[in-house]
Amino acid sequence: MKKTVGFLMCLAAAGMLAGCGGKTDAGTSATTAAGGGAETVAQGESKAEAAGEPVVINYYDWDIPDQKFIDDFNAANPDIQVVVHSIPANGERLTKLDILAMSGGDMDVMPISDGDQFTRFESGMLAPLDEFIERDGLDMEASFGKYAIWGQSDGKYYGIPFRATQTGIYYNKDMFDQAGVAYPSDDWTLDEYIETARKMAEWGKDQGIYGTYTHTYANEWATVAAQKGEWYTADGKCNIKDPAWQTALETRKMLDDEGTQMPYGQIVAVKAVINSSFLGGKEAMVNAGSWLVRDMKNKDKFPFDFNVGVAYLPRFDETVEGPRSNYSCSVLGIPENSKHKEEAWRFIRYYVEECSNYIAASGNLPTYLPAYNDEMVNIFCEGSGLDVEYGKKFFDGDVKLTTNKIIGPCGAQYMQIGKEEIEQYFNGEKTLEETLDNIERRVNEELAKQ
């Protein structure tokens, strides 16, 4: 409980609790969900349960695959009624979920993505799931393989993996054809990636087209270097001065400064985003997750008209074996404050184990390995315009995966400190040496508190 209160205080200190009221896309009032209004949702549920009606559980998410799977679950489980609430897919989504989880509100199933889950596991926000897992005989390794670790903290499970993303280099085949530049190979190296990006930038400079694009997400600069770099020293201290990280940072700044890609500061200033930038024809290549396939299906919002190819990530250097991808995973957890943990667990298992095709159809990667089959790749690509042969790369069991997310002691703080310091380096406000010194000092201070 003390950790949870501390976590909430950190949000408040950062000014994150302001402006989180209002309605979600589904029309659910955030203040009502947190206990405001004449009658709270929880009070209404208690009356319904007392009358022998189904237990209502509330699921919030910013990426609902299809309402039909919710309807199917409700039909198959008449004692439970799942109500889904869509929240905006913007930078405030996690803050809204945090408040709902910690306020004693009505949320029973909480999605958390891309490494953000570990701080929440440690805070006590989510209920441990080990008793459910053991009772049901769920083999986490057999069911989720490489994704299982994303639901763990300190040897306990607090989340069940349900969707994932793997990174590739998407490229505009039409631009490459016009430029007379060979398509990226699946065995290329970082040096070859840089050379290709420069060729495409030179071709596109008079048209306002960049050679490639790297976004401003925390540690996005590290997706390739993660094949070689280590975040911690052997004695558990900050290892940001690992040569691999230095090379990656220098490479990002070099490509920015020479105009090969849109500079970090410009991306922030114009609020550029990966999907609309690449699908809008503003660069020849982009380093992006498999989730971009989801946006390629949305032709109303992204009406692109060119052919897209996908290559594996470049290898950091010749010593690294391929093929390579960067990955991260989203999990479903049950808030400690939920009054319906048993029912929430039943829904999570149904969603994860029975709805992989729905997840694939939405352009996301399912994490439940027993559900994988050739048809799933077709479902994943359908409607996107992406050739199935490219889509198969995201389902390749032989690809070697690493992650740019920091999964370890003070991982969330490590990434936040890095983002704060590194953006000053990218914007020319600090030298690389100053940047690395500051990160090392600040992260080691956090580690010393453990």
UniProtKB/TrEMBL annotation:
Residues 422-449 form a coiled coil. Keywords: Cell membrane, Coiled coil, Lipoprotein, Membrane, Palmitate, Signal. Pfam families: SBP_bac_1 (PF01547). Residues 1-18 form the signal peptide. InterPro entries: Bact_solute-bd_prot1, SBP. PANTHER family: ARABINOSE-BINDING PROTEIN-RELATED, POLYGALACTURONAN_RHAMNOGALACTURONAN-BINDING PROTEIN YTCQ. This is Extracellular solute-binding protein. It comes from Enterocloster asparagiformis. The lineage of its organism: Bacteria, Bacillati, Bacillota, Clostridia, Lachnospirales.
